[in-house]
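Name: Transporter
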Amino acid sequence: METQNEQWSSKIGFIYATAGTAIGLGAIWKFPYVAGTSGGGAFFLLFILFTLLIGLPLLIGEFILGRHTGKDAISTYKELAPKSTWVATGWIGVITCFIILTFYSVVGGWILIYLANAITGQLSGLSVDQLGVQLGNSIANPYATLAAQLLFILFTVLVVSKGIQKGIERASKLMMPALFILLIIIAIRSLTLEGAMEGVQFLLMPDLSSITSETILFALGQALFALSLGISIMVTYSSYVPKTQSLPLAAGSIGIMNIFVALLAGLIIFPGVFTFGLEPSEGPQLIFVVLPAIFEQMLFGQFLLIAFLVLFLFAALTSAFSLLEIIVASRVKKDSTKRVKASWIIGLSAFICGIPACLSFGVMADVEIFGRTFFDAADQLASNILMPLGALLISLFVPLKMSKTTLFNELKQGSSVGSKLFIAWYFLLKYVTPFAIIIVFLDAIGLFSFWR
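Structure predicted for Transporter:
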């Protein structure tokens, strides 16, 4: 029996929850290390361009799909394109969310381990080299990492099982503002470090000659990952949005917050990287080495490190909530009596499937699939293949399966969007977004090798 559709209780609750899907590990953890390995300022410039010209139009498109139908990802495509293969777009989203959750929860477990280490004083007084050794030992311990990953999954399941207003929205409204404030404080302190200007230049002064096809692909992948696009998370979240919500305003707010947090993350990490003699290309572990070293030089550093890790954990959880929610929503079909059972089954399945990724930095470090560890392979498949593919399909689906009149009316609901803004959005979504994604894909497989 289908129950009444849940809704966000407030406009700001929806914005915080959707922003939280990205501002956790997408901006704070992943952006610095991907930027560090992909050209720094050149990558950041491409990331901003892709966010504004591809990300925001696509985000609005996903918002329209979800609010117009009021259904989960899979059911949305079934309703708008019945008895067609377009439903595969929804399935791609659900499968990709599951894959991301398997390795995302691993990093969530690392945060828990580091939080425990910070509380017990194990990170105090350590040099950067010692912090690197400490991190390596921590994430190589199979028992600790698996237990931490499971604990992260269990908390995610508990919140999602409570539903939209009482679970996801309530948690997001508490976590996100506190995280913003602390990020600004840490960025200001990081900018006073000895090597701060080198770090700022690395992030904000792009060397266009360093741009390669891989840089472009990674920047596009990060723009999609950071806004949780191409996997229909935003379709599912917007299905809980009332008609009084301005979709363009919500999308713009989320896009600006996302770029701002990525900037803050870069201004926190890269000054520390150059101050402490690290390489920007250190990889996924970068933030766990640089941040404790920065806090070590601050007044009340241990307390602030603990506070940051708590908030970082909260931000990571808001992203995990959305990953699990899209899968759960596709299974329960608005029948709230099935939510608790579905949340537990899917969450524990993600934990089990994520065990190889969790062990990729320890006992399974030498086990590879397609030349990568399980962790890196899952990240590559989800971020650089499935998410762009899903984004391409959605950008084609919206103008093909929904009339201009329907799209314009949906966009006007709760906002004062005029015809000129609608035409600009429609053009970007229909022509620029799919063209850009296709070009990047073709170049990635070597068809435009003369670029290199």
